[in-house]
Write a structure and sequence with these properties.
By secondary structure, the protein is of the alpha+beta class. It contains 11 helices and 33 strands.
């Protein structure tokens, strides 16, 4: 679960071994003729390197080179150390010094040289080098396999660049500063929908805990341990805060009550700002295997996570558990072979748009290790083919988890490649335009009883009008508070339901590049009683016509459900128009529209004696007809409860 950096010693050692094995290729260089003092110092460098002490190893190599400037093996070994430290530019420089001294002696080192070239983004040159390497006769099978693998990654990189031109894309990660980052390791950031609270994992010595920071005047405050009972003397990490900031889901490993090695846990925000003691998700979500890296959908209905549980497609897969109407979590479902491979997929992040999924994979074609991919939801069970985020976001090394803010373009991730000495810090950067999620606005407010002003736990549902696809369906908290997200560029039907009350209806058109970020809408629900009335804002007709449009069916079905749940209720359906046109024609049109609604209810089995339709034309406006917005409000369909 922790993101410790492991430095491989194999690369360095293999260079030392190989340098003894291929002297027959030398044109002039002979290891036996190297200055003995330089050799002795070089041997001590080897000893330091084997122990992982690269700093002293490099210092000894430098001393050896000062004595023997044409010490080819020393350059090759220093190149290997730089590569292990991910200082690929220095590695390339040392490889090229060695090649310039004796290219024949160094010919078998073209494979690691090509890797370092790719590390600097020189994929075309890396491909040329690896092609030359593969021409060497009598390569062993391991070298051939490694060369073919690397060649495929270089070809992928060049093909990707051709298909996805950068268009002056400038990858410039920005360190979040001393409020977030410290001399310790910081990683796995998580944000609330407004981008003003960040929770991340900080590792101090061998202990991982959660820290919180607030964004005030565009500066992150000095992070403090998350208050409450969530941090323990055990390791907590790989966390995700819900978009409203009320839930924190995370990974706990080796907890006494754990089901497997690592399980998913949840903690809830208290009114005093602290967090409750964590609760295990239980044996439906957790198994005796490994579960980690949770990501909660903005409506809190879907929990994405990584697991190596049985029934997957390979190593670690991405799964999703859906929250049922009773509040319990259902049995997880594998996201399937389009997302998951026979290798590892981890660190899922579902964006606030509830459509865009970012994740890590070493199974899909990439640059050589674990890359970041995205996939977009096509419908409730189908995802688009994963798309690699490309270089330089992805590199030949393993990439860590990535999250994207509600604006769809600002990404946050942890990295050590920009400042190796500082270890893992958290950075932000702007995504390339084709890698962005939809900018997502949000509505927050409170649902309450219109007569008593008491908050009402209710169901809030957001539907895309054109497709009738449910984007979000969520429950308010016990006091009626809610937060719902709206990706821009679409039209939405917004409904709030609670048994015993008339449902609330509204619609929103969120244009692309909207300047707004959020709306506050407090919703008074009317108890079902005689005299109560609502406007059905999601009933649509074409201009001067009374045929019900397809987009109206969800709203009408809610009305059918309301009538069925209240079998004694009788209603009057009222049609209204604006003042454009002939008054008598408007009255006739409004009556026909009311009758169309009535006809739909009759077709669904509602008895005729429970329904009455009337048309009022433009006689009872609720807004001025002097503006287009006012006219739109006046063109409406209402229902009034006659009796219940």
């Amino acid at each position: 679960m922790s993101l410790l950096k492991f430095i491989s010693k194999i690369f360095f050692i293999s260079l030392i071994i190989q340098s003894v094995s291929f002297t027959s290729y030398a044109q002039w260089y002979d290891p036996e003729k190297v200055n003995k003092k330089a050799k002795a110092i070089y041997q001590s460098a080897y000893d330091f390197a084997v122990d992982g002490n690269y700093k002293d190893a490099v210092q000894k190599i430098n001393e050896a080179l000062a004595i023997e400037p044409k010490f080819v093996e020393a350059y090759l070994s220093r190149a290997a150390i730089h590569a292990d430290l991910k200082d690929y530019a220095s590695s390339v420089n040392d490889f090229e010094k060695a090649f310039n001294l004796d290219s024949a002696f160094c010919s078998t080192y073209q494979l690691p040289y090509s890797i370092s070239l790719a590390g600097t983004g020189e994929f075309e040159k890396a491909l040329s080098v690896i092609n030359n390497f593969m021409k060497i006769e009598k390569l062993n099978q391991q070298s051939i396999r490694s060369a073919k693998y690397r060649k495929a990654t270089y070809e992928f990189a060049l093909d990707y660049k051709q298909k996805h031109p950068e268009n002056n894309y400038n990858f410039t990660p920005v360190n979040l500063g001393t409020g977030i980052n410290s001399n310790n390791l910081e990683y796995y950031p998580s944000l609330t929908i407004d981008g003003k609270k960040m929770i991340f994992t900080r590792r101090i010595k061998n202990d991982e805990d959660f820290y919180e920071s607030e964004l005030i005047n565009n500066e992150w405050t000095v992070a403090k341990p998350a208050p409450g009972k969530i941090n323990t003397n055990l390791n907590e990490g790989a966390q995700n805060i819900s978009q409203d900031g009320d839930w924190l889901i995370f990974t706990g490993c080796n907890y006494p009550e754990g089901v497997g090695s690592c399980d998913l846990y949840i903690s809830y925000k208290l009114k005093n700002g602290g967090w409750t003691e964590a609760e295990n998700f239980g044996p439906i979500v957790n198994t005796d295997q490994w579960e980690s890296a949770p990501s909660l959908s903005p409506d809190k209905r879907d929990l994405y996570f990584a697991s190596n549980r049985f029934g997957g497609l390979g190593g670690k897969d991405i799964w999703v558990s859906h929250r049922m109407s009773n509040g319990k979590w259902g049995r997880p479902v594998n996201l399937g072979p389009l997302i998951n491979t026979s290798r590892d997929e981890t660190c899922p992040f579902i964006h606030a748009d509830n459509q865009t999924l970012y994740f890590i994979s070493n199974g899909h074609q990439g640059y050589g290790s674990s890359d970041i991919f995205l996939s977009r939801k096509l419908n409730d069970s189908t995802w688009s083919a994963p798309l690699n985020l490309g270089y330089p976001i992805n590199t030949i090394d393993d990439e860590g988890s990535l999250i994207v803010s509600s604006d769809g373009k600002t990404a946050y991730y942890a990295s050590d490649r920009l400042n190796e000495a500082a270890g893992l810090d958290i950075y932000s950067f702007q995504l390339r335009e084709d890698m962005r999620a939809a900018k997502t606005l949000w509505i927050k407010g409170k649902v309450f009883d219109k007569k008593t002003s008491v908050g009402l736990p209710s169901t809030v549902e957001l539907t895309e009008i054109n497709t009738r696809r449910i984007i979000s369906r969520l429950q308010t908290d016990e006091e009626g508070n809610y937060l719902v997200t709206l990706p821009e560029g679409k039209e939405y039907a917004f409904n709030v339901n609670r048994k015993g009350y008339l449902f609330y209806s509204d619609n929103f058109s969120i244009p692309a590049n909207s300047k707004d970020s959020f709306f506050t809408i407090n919703i008074p629900l009317q108890p079902i009683e005689a005299g109560a009335a609502i406007v059905l804002k999601n009933i649509f007709f074409d201009n001067n016509k009374f045929e019900i449009r397809h987009e109206s069916l969800d709203e009408l079905d809610r009305l059918v459900l309301l009538m069925n749940e209240n079998p004694k209720m009788t209603i009057q359906i009222n049609g209204h128009t604006d003042n454009v046109g002939n008054k008598e024609a408007n009255k006739t049109l409004s009556l026909n529209r009311a009758k169309s609604v009535m006809g739909y209810l009759l077709s669904k089995g509602i008895k005729k004696e429970r329904l009455l339709a009337k048309g009022f034309g433009d006689s009872t406006p609720i807004a001025s007809n002097d503006t287009e917005q006012g006219k739109s409000l006046n063109r409406r369909t209402e229902i009034n409860i006659i009796s219940n």
